[in-house]
Amino acid sequence: MTGTRDRNGQAGQPSSVDEIEAAQIRARVAWLYFIGGLTQQDIADQLGLTRLRINKILGQLRTDGSVRIDIRLPMADCVELEQRLKERYGLQGVSVVPSLPDDTDQQRVIGEAAGALLDRHLSNGMGIGVGWGKTLAAGLKRISARPLPDSWVTSIMGGVTRGSGASTFEVATGYARAISADCYYIAAPIYMPTPESRTLLLSHHGIGETLRRARLVDVALVSCGDMSDRSLLIQTQTVTENRDSLIAAGAVGDLLGVFLDAEGHPLDHPLNERVLSLSPQELKNVKFSLLASGGLHKVPIIRAILRGGYVKRLVTDEKCAAALLER
User: Are 278 and 209 spatial neighbours (Cβ–Cβ below 8 Å)?
Assistant: First the structure.
């Protein structure tokens, strides 16, 4: 980091406005290049700098120890957004990452940030509940592989019939393998054909036991879906057939398969009566609950979840964070 150095030659804190601004630019260049995966030209265009300057900054970062496994350079804008979101929504913790132009890259970096946050919190004996989606699957990269033999992992929502590397079964299995823990599954579709069939299935010992465990988890890692075709859940036939009526009823998206209105209230809709998952209300009881989601298209559903008070922590991106703070 640019700034003064102490008697041992170590970098100190920036001591002037110019140095602080330079440090922030270096932090953004480092993050966008090493974590975001952008090219030097992409970064130059996004920050309004020349490619030559970006190249020079990256050269300095490689030689002065600023970039290690993690980038240890704070970004003031992100830190400010984190604090404001905590105050606005009464959250225990918030992590805001820079926004990226590509949706896939954005999902990946949000997921990795969530995984890093979760990794620091894990300890032996914990029950860990996970949802599904590409964002949560990306978080696996930041989970330190180590045995936690007294812990266990459970899916907290039913699944879909098509695998993509991000289904509830695949994601839960990934987290369980990372910590050498037992894994439990809700081995059923997320939506049952009727409320009566849902009630009948809950009488099955295995399904009932997994949902019982889901209600006892110490940690819950979840994402959410909006009402557009970008949502994996919207792409399923069951939800596609009900999308028009859900939107007409005021749905802005789903949390654990439960569709919410703009204020965070579960809709009075037949589909919500057929969902097989931990309920948003039950999620409130989890000690360490973390929502990992971002993108401007997700703002309505993320805001609804925060208004409902269903989670205690949030990982999102800058643009989404700023939109969540708009009145």
Answer: no
Strand partners of residue 222:
291
116: exposed, middle or buried (Cβ count in 10 Å: 0-12, 13-18, 19+): middle
Sign of CA dihedral 28, 114, 283, 296: positive
Dist. CA 74–CA 85, nearest whole Å: 17
Question: What are the pLDDT digits (tens) for 21-69?
Answer: 888 899 999 999 988 889 999 999 999 999 999 999 998 887 776 766 4
Close Cβ partners of 18 (under 8 Å, ≥ 6 residues apart): none
pLDDT for 105-115, tens place per residue?
A: 999 999 999 99
Number of continuous H segments (helices) and E segments (strands) in the chain: 13, 9
17-30 and 76-89 are packed helices; what angle lies between their axes, rounded to 10 degrees? 80
The residues facing 58 across adjacent strands are none
Closest Cα to residue 270, out of 224, 303, 239, 225?
A: 239
What residue type is assigned to position 196 of the chain? E
Q: Which of 179, 168, 164, 158 is nearest to 130 (CA)?
A: 168
Give the torsion sign (CA, 39, 291, 148, 155). Answer: negative
Helical spans, DSSP H, in the chain: 17-30, 40-47, 51-63, 76-89, 103-121, 134-138, 168-178, 195-202, 205-214, 237-248, 280-283, 299-308, 318-324
Cα-Cα-Cα-Cα dihedral sign, residues 127, 132, 135, 139: positive
Question: What distance in Å separates the CA atoms of residue 106 and residue 39, rounded to the nearest whole number?
Answer: 15
Bridge partners, 258 (sequence order): 255
pTM over 0.85: no
Q: Are 265 and 308 in contact (CB under 8 A)?
A: yes
Between helix 17-30 and helix 51-63 the angle, nearest 10°, is 90
